[in-house]
Amino acid sequence: MADLFEALSEVVAAKILLDAITTSQRLSELGVPHTLIGALAVGVHGHPRATKDVDFLVGPEAFESTSPLLVYRPELSEVVRIGVIDLLSVPPEYPSLAEHLQDVEPGTVPIIPIDALILLKLHANRPQDLADVIALLKSGVNAAKVTDYLRDVAPALASKFAELVSDEEV
């Protein structure tokens, strides 16, 4: 928790950081394995930037159903605020991401490892996500390690990552 505040307090509003902490605590209380993703995780991994939302990757314990519609457990209705606090399920294309979900003690905010974060950013493929990957590369991410990871768990994204690395000459 201290790492989260130290890494981001100069660029992220205190309310957003508190939302991350209280959401993680509530998920822990409800037995929902989770890990912080999105802009806050990007910041912790070396590229702090402003954001207005908190994103968590969560286990199936967060949902009453995931098909045909994603329906959260009723206890999470107080937590989820679309665009403010988002809880995302593990993409079916990348089931290995579930290994990064954690059951943690309240007061702890688990943060997704950088290689898995880059996978999620490449998968999303939005301009801001790709900009985040480039910023992480510039901050010193071990591109070879990420490439190996992507080749193992998301081969289709490895070439997209290689293009970004090449474009940035990292």
Task: Encode the helix/strand succession as letters.
Answer: HHEHEEEEHHHH
* Straight-line N-to-C gap: 31 Å
Q: Largest beta sheet, briefly?
A: 3 strands, mixed
Averaged pLDDT: 91
Structural class: mainly alpha
Number of distinct beta strands: 5
Helix content: 40-55%
Runs with pLDDT <50, length 5+?
none
Radius of gyration: 16 Å
How many structural domains? 2
Shape: globular
- The count of helical stretches stands at 7
Strand coverage percent: 5-15%
Structural description of this entry:
The protein is globular, with a radius of gyration of 16 Å. The strands form two sheets. A three-stranded mixed beta sheet has the order 1-2-5. A hairpin with a 5-residue loop joins β3 (63-65) and β4. It folds into two domains: 1-112; 113-170, no CATH class. It has helices at 2-8, 14-29, 38-44, 114-124, 127-138, 143-153, 155-168, and strands at residues 34-37, 54-58, 63-65, 71-72, 85-89. It has 170 residues and is mainly alpha-helical. The protein has seven helices and five strands, in the order ααβαββββαααα.
